[in-house]
Amino acid sequence: MTHAYRCPLGSGAELVRNGPVVLGKLRPSREVREAMQMRGEFVPPQQVKLLIDTGASFSMVSRSLATGLGLQPLRRHAVVGVSQKAEMCWVYEATLDLWLEGPSSRVEVALPLSVTGVADAHADVPHDAVVSGLLGRDFLASFVLLYDGPRARFELRTERVRAED
Amino acid sequence: MVRDVSILGVSVPHPRLQLTPPDAVRAGRSCEGRGLGTPPRLELLSFAAAADLESGPFGGSLAFPGDPAVRWDMATLEDEVAAQYDRFLRALPQLRTGHDGEWVVFLDTARFFAADERAALRWAHANLRLDAGYVVARVEEPEPVFLSAALAYRLAT
To answer: Please, is B29 exposed, middle or buried when counting C-beta atoms within 10 Å of its C-beta (0-12, 13-18, 19+)?
Structure first.
Protein backbone atom coordinates (compact mmCIF):
# COMPACT_ATOMS: atom_id res chain seq x y z
CA MET A 1 0.00 0.00 0.00
CA THR A 2 1.66 3.19 -1.17
CA HIS A 3 1.70 6.31 0.96
CA ALA A 4 3.14 9.57 -0.24
CA TYR A 5 4.12 12.97 1.04
CA ARG A 6 3.42 15.60 -1.59
CA CYS A 7 4.59 19.17 -1.45
CA PRO A 8 2.05 21.98 -1.40
CA LEU A 9 1.50 23.33 -4.87
CA GLY A 10 3.81 26.15 -5.84
CA SER A 11 5.56 27.59 -8.81
CA GLY A 12 8.67 26.20 -10.38
CA ALA A 13 10.55 29.27 -9.18
CA GLU A 14 9.48 28.59 -5.60
CA LEU A 15 10.69 25.03 -5.78
CA VAL A 16 14.01 26.21 -7.15
CA ARG A 17 14.32 28.90 -4.48
CA ASN A 18 13.09 26.96 -1.44
CA GLY A 19 14.03 23.44 -2.48
CA PRO A 20 12.09 20.34 -1.54
CA VAL A 21 10.90 21.36 1.90
CA VAL A 22 8.88 18.98 4.07
CA LEU A 23 6.44 20.46 6.57
CA GLY A 24 5.92 18.41 9.70
CA LYS A 25 6.00 18.36 13.46
CA LEU A 26 8.99 17.30 15.51
CA ARG A 27 8.64 15.93 19.00
CA PRO A 28 10.35 13.45 21.34
CA SER A 29 9.90 9.72 20.96
CA ARG A 30 6.81 8.15 22.48
CA GLU A 31 8.78 6.87 25.47
CA VAL A 32 10.07 10.34 26.33
CA ARG A 33 6.64 11.86 25.81
CA GLU A 34 5.18 9.36 28.25
CA ALA A 35 7.92 10.16 30.73
CA MET A 36 7.20 13.86 30.42
CA GLN A 37 3.53 13.19 30.90
CA MET A 38 4.25 11.33 34.11
CA ARG A 39 6.12 14.40 35.33
CA GLY A 40 3.19 16.59 34.43
CA GLU A 41 5.18 18.22 31.67
CA PHE A 42 4.09 18.80 28.15
CA VAL A 43 6.27 20.21 25.42
CA PRO A 44 4.18 20.97 22.35
CA PRO A 45 5.43 19.53 19.05
CA GLN A 46 7.46 21.98 17.03
CA GLN A 47 6.33 22.84 13.51
CA VAL A 48 9.37 22.31 11.32
CA LYS A 49 10.40 22.95 7.76
CA LEU A 50 12.97 20.34 6.79
CA LEU A 51 14.88 20.56 3.54
CA ILE A 52 15.46 17.27 1.77
CA ASP A 53 19.21 17.12 1.15
CA THR A 54 20.52 14.15 -0.80
CA GLY A 55 23.99 15.54 -0.10
CA ALA A 56 23.59 14.99 3.64
CA SER A 57 24.19 11.53 5.01
CA PHE A 58 22.15 12.22 8.14
CA SER A 59 19.23 14.35 9.24
CA MET A 60 19.88 17.36 11.43
CA VAL A 61 18.18 20.14 13.32
CA SER A 62 19.59 22.91 15.44
CA ARG A 63 20.83 21.77 18.81
CA SER A 64 18.70 24.35 20.58
CA LEU A 65 15.59 22.93 18.94
CA ALA A 66 16.56 19.39 19.95
CA THR A 67 17.25 20.26 23.56
CA GLY A 68 14.22 22.53 23.75
CA LEU A 69 12.00 19.64 22.77
CA GLY A 70 13.70 17.37 25.31
CA LEU A 71 14.88 14.84 22.74
CA GLN A 72 16.69 11.80 24.11
CA PRO A 73 20.46 11.81 23.38
CA LEU A 74 21.70 8.51 21.93
CA ARG A 75 25.31 9.01 20.93
CA ARG A 76 27.76 11.51 19.54
CA HIS A 77 29.47 11.75 16.22
CA ALA A 78 31.98 14.00 14.51
CA VAL A 79 30.44 16.37 12.01
CA VAL A 80 32.25 18.65 9.58
CA GLY A 81 30.12 21.77 9.47
CA VAL A 82 30.45 25.32 8.32
CA SER A 83 33.60 25.76 10.42
CA GLN A 84 35.27 23.13 8.21
CA LYS A 85 36.47 21.39 11.35
CA ALA A 86 35.09 18.18 12.78
CA GLU A 87 32.96 18.90 15.83
CA MET A 88 31.34 16.36 18.12
CA CYS A 89 27.56 16.61 17.86
CA TRP A 90 24.79 14.79 19.65
CA VAL A 91 22.43 12.42 17.91
CA TYR A 92 18.91 12.48 19.36
CA GLU A 93 15.94 10.19 19.12
CA ALA A 94 12.91 12.02 17.74
CA THR A 95 9.55 11.55 16.10
CA LEU A 96 8.55 13.37 12.92
CA ASP A 97 4.82 13.69 12.26
CA LEU A 98 3.99 13.90 8.58
CA TRP A 99 0.74 13.90 6.67
CA LEU A 100 0.87 11.16 4.05
CA GLU A 101 -1.65 10.48 1.35
CA GLY A 102 -2.82 6.90 1.25
CA PRO A 103 -4.94 5.13 -1.33
CA SER A 104 -8.18 6.49 0.10
CA SER A 105 -7.35 9.10 2.73
CA ARG A 106 -4.72 11.31 4.31
CA VAL A 107 -3.16 10.03 7.51
CA GLU A 108 -0.79 11.67 9.96
CA VAL A 109 2.04 9.28 10.59
CA ALA A 110 4.56 9.40 13.43
CA LEU A 111 7.91 8.44 11.95
CA PRO A 112 10.88 7.62 14.18
CA LEU A 113 13.87 9.73 13.24
CA SER A 114 17.38 10.08 14.57
CA VAL A 115 18.52 13.67 14.23
CA THR A 116 21.88 15.27 14.80
CA GLY A 117 21.86 18.48 16.80
CA VAL A 118 24.11 21.02 15.14
CA ALA A 119 25.10 24.34 16.64
CA ASP A 120 22.80 27.09 15.46
CA ALA A 121 24.15 28.98 12.48
CA HIS A 122 21.73 31.81 13.14
CA ALA A 123 20.95 31.75 16.81
CA ASP A 124 19.03 35.00 16.62
CA VAL A 125 16.69 33.80 13.88
CA PRO A 126 13.46 32.14 15.04
CA HIS A 127 13.05 28.50 14.06
CA ASP A 128 10.05 29.22 11.91
CA ALA A 129 11.81 31.89 9.87
CA VAL A 130 14.28 29.58 8.19
CA VAL A 131 14.56 25.93 7.35
CA SER A 132 14.61 24.06 10.65
CA GLY A 133 16.95 21.37 9.47
CA LEU A 134 17.83 18.80 6.85
CA LEU A 135 16.37 15.42 5.99
CA GLY A 136 19.34 13.37 4.86
CA ARG A 137 19.90 10.03 3.29
CA ASP A 138 19.15 8.23 6.55
CA PHE A 139 15.56 9.47 6.27
CA LEU A 140 15.43 8.87 2.52
CA ALA A 141 16.41 5.24 3.08
CA SER A 142 12.71 4.59 3.68
CA PHE A 143 11.36 6.61 0.75
CA VAL A 144 11.41 6.99 -2.99
CA LEU A 145 12.09 10.64 -3.78
CA LEU A 146 10.57 12.00 -6.97
CA TYR A 147 11.67 15.53 -7.89
CA ASP A 148 9.64 16.80 -10.79
CA GLY A 149 11.05 20.19 -11.79
CA PRO A 150 8.88 20.83 -14.85
CA ARG A 151 5.72 20.29 -12.80
CA ALA A 152 7.13 22.13 -9.77
CA ARG A 153 6.52 19.34 -7.32
CA PHE A 154 8.23 16.59 -5.45
CA GLU A 155 7.00 13.50 -3.75
CA LEU A 156 8.21 11.11 -1.07
CA ARG A 157 6.72 7.70 -1.61
CA THR A 158 6.89 4.56 0.47
CA GLU A 159 5.39 1.11 0.17
CA ARG A 160 5.78 0.44 3.84
CA VAL A 161 5.28 3.13 6.46
CA ARG A 162 7.68 2.52 9.33
CA ALA A 163 5.67 4.37 11.91
CA GLU A 164 6.50 4.75 15.58
CA ASP A 165 5.94 1.49 17.47
CA MET B 1 11.65 13.22 48.95
CA VAL B 2 11.47 9.62 50.20
CA ARG B 3 8.41 7.82 49.03
CA ASP B 4 6.78 4.50 49.74
CA VAL B 5 6.66 1.72 47.21
CA SER B 6 3.53 -0.32 46.87
CA ILE B 7 4.42 -3.99 46.54
CA LEU B 8 1.51 -6.28 45.80
CA GLY B 9 -0.76 -3.69 47.29
CA VAL B 10 1.31 -3.31 50.48
CA SER B 11 2.95 0.02 50.99
CA VAL B 12 6.64 -0.35 51.81
CA PRO B 13 8.91 2.58 52.61
CA HIS B 14 11.90 2.66 50.34
CA PRO B 15 14.70 5.02 51.27
CA ARG B 16 16.38 4.87 47.88
CA LEU B 17 13.45 6.07 45.92
CA GLN B 18 13.80 9.70 44.99
CA LEU B 19 10.48 10.58 43.51
CA THR B 20 9.72 14.03 42.29
CA PRO B 21 6.01 14.56 41.73
CA PRO B 22 4.92 16.47 38.67
CA ASP B 23 4.88 20.22 39.13
CA ALA B 24 1.13 20.24 38.69
CA VAL B 25 0.73 17.81 41.58
CA ARG B 26 3.13 19.73 43.81
CA ALA B 27 1.16 22.85 43.09
CA GLY B 28 -2.01 21.11 44.16
CA ARG B 29 -3.41 20.99 40.66
CA SER B 30 -4.78 17.87 39.15
CA CYS B 31 -3.23 16.43 36.02
CA GLU B 32 -6.65 15.28 34.98
CA GLY B 33 -8.50 17.68 32.82
CA ARG B 34 -5.21 18.85 31.28
CA GLY B 35 -4.97 15.74 29.17
CA LEU B 36 -2.13 14.43 31.29
CA GLY B 37 -3.91 11.52 32.92
CA THR B 38 -3.59 10.61 36.54
CA PRO B 39 -0.44 11.47 38.48
CA PRO B 40 2.25 8.79 38.49
CA ARG B 41 2.02 6.05 41.07
CA LEU B 42 4.82 3.62 41.73
CA GLU B 43 3.76 0.04 41.89
CA LEU B 44 5.94 -3.03 41.77
CA LEU B 45 4.48 -6.29 40.61
CA SER B 46 6.71 -8.57 42.62
CA PHE B 47 9.33 -8.71 45.34
CA ALA B 48 11.82 -9.64 42.63
CA ALA B 49 11.29 -6.21 41.16
CA ALA B 50 11.83 -4.69 44.58
CA ALA B 51 15.08 -6.62 44.91
CA ASP B 52 16.18 -5.07 41.65
CA LEU B 53 16.16 -1.74 43.41
CA GLU B 54 19.06 -2.83 45.57
CA SER B 55 21.04 -5.05 43.27
CA GLY B 56 20.03 -3.97 39.82
CA PRO B 57 22.47 -3.58 37.01
CA PHE B 58 22.69 0.16 37.46
CA GLY B 59 24.51 0.43 40.73
CA GLY B 60 21.52 -0.04 42.95
CA SER B 61 19.48 2.75 41.49
CA LEU B 62 15.93 2.23 40.45
CA ALA B 63 15.98 -0.45 37.81
CA PHE B 64 12.59 -1.20 36.40
CA PRO B 65 11.81 0.05 32.95
CA GLY B 66 8.68 2.00 32.25
CA ASP B 67 9.17 4.27 35.21
CA PRO B 68 11.00 7.16 33.66
CA ALA B 69 9.49 9.68 36.03
CA VAL B 70 12.06 8.82 38.66
CA ARG B 71 15.31 10.80 38.67
CA TRP B 72 14.95 11.61 34.99
CA ASP B 73 16.90 14.76 34.48
CA MET B 74 17.68 15.82 30.92
CA ALA B 75 20.30 18.27 32.16
CA THR B 76 22.54 15.52 33.47
CA LEU B 77 21.54 12.88 30.96
CA GLU B 78 23.90 14.19 28.30
CA ASP B 79 26.80 13.91 30.75
CA GLU B 80 25.91 10.29 31.45
CA VAL B 81 25.50 9.42 27.78
CA ALA B 82 28.79 11.18 27.02
CA ALA B 83 30.57 9.07 29.66
CA GLN B 84 28.99 5.92 28.26
CA TYR B 85 29.95 6.94 24.74
CA ASP B 86 33.59 7.27 25.82
CA ARG B 87 33.39 3.76 27.26
CA PHE B 88 31.81 2.57 24.04
CA LEU B 89 34.71 4.02 22.05
CA ARG B 90 37.21 2.28 24.30
CA ALA B 91 35.36 -1.01 23.86
CA LEU B 92 34.94 -0.54 20.12
CA PRO B 93 37.98 -2.56 18.94
CA GLN B 94 36.71 -5.54 20.90
CA LEU B 95 33.10 -5.02 19.79
CA ARG B 96 34.12 -4.94 16.15
CA THR B 97 35.36 -8.47 16.46
CA GLY B 98 32.26 -10.40 15.55
CA HIS B 99 29.79 -7.49 15.57
CA ASP B 100 31.18 -5.08 13.00
CA GLY B 101 28.37 -3.18 11.29
CA GLU B 102 25.72 -4.15 13.82
CA TRP B 103 23.93 -1.75 16.16
CA VAL B 104 24.59 -2.00 19.85
CA VAL B 105 22.88 -0.88 23.02
CA PHE B 106 25.78 -0.02 25.29
CA LEU B 107 25.62 0.62 29.00
CA ASP B 108 28.94 -0.09 30.73
CA THR B 109 29.14 -3.04 28.38
CA ALA B 110 27.36 -4.23 25.27
CA ARG B 111 23.83 -5.13 26.32
CA PHE B 112 22.24 -5.99 23.02
CA PHE B 113 23.15 -6.26 19.35
CA ALA B 114 20.69 -5.67 16.54
CA ALA B 115 20.67 -5.49 12.78
CA ASP B 116 19.28 -1.96 12.71
CA GLU B 117 18.85 1.08 14.91
CA ARG B 118 15.09 0.66 15.41
CA ALA B 119 15.52 -2.84 16.78
CA ALA B 120 18.23 -1.62 19.15
CA LEU B 121 16.02 1.23 20.35
CA ARG B 122 13.06 -1.11 20.88
CA TRP B 123 15.21 -3.28 23.11
CA ALA B 124 16.52 -0.29 25.04
CA HIS B 125 13.01 1.05 25.60
CA ALA B 126 11.80 -2.32 26.85
CA ASN B 127 14.73 -3.08 29.11
CA LEU B 128 16.44 0.10 30.28
CA ARG B 129 15.40 3.29 31.97
CA LEU B 130 15.42 6.43 29.88
CA ASP B 131 17.78 8.07 32.36
CA ALA B 132 20.22 5.16 32.45
CA GLY B 133 22.51 6.96 30.00
CA TYR B 134 22.65 4.17 27.47
CA VAL B 135 24.23 4.62 24.06
CA VAL B 136 22.71 3.33 20.83
CA ALA B 137 25.34 3.31 18.11
CA ARG B 138 26.60 1.41 15.11
CA VAL B 139 29.63 -0.76 15.68
CA GLU B 140 32.01 0.85 13.22
CA GLU B 141 35.06 3.05 13.16
CA PRO B 142 33.74 6.57 13.79
CA GLU B 143 34.61 8.94 10.98
CA PRO B 144 33.68 12.60 10.59
CA VAL B 145 30.76 13.10 8.24
CA PHE B 146 29.94 16.20 6.25
CA LEU B 147 26.90 18.18 7.25
CA SER B 148 26.09 18.53 3.58
CA ALA B 149 27.68 17.83 0.24
CA ALA B 150 28.23 21.56 -0.25
CA LEU B 151 30.84 21.51 2.52
CA ALA B 152 32.69 18.64 0.91
CA TYR B 153 32.86 20.68 -2.28
CA ARG B 154 34.24 23.68 -0.42
CA LEU B 155 36.90 21.52 1.21
CA ALA B 156 37.90 20.05 -2.12
CA THR B 157 38.42 23.44 -3.68
So the answer is: middle
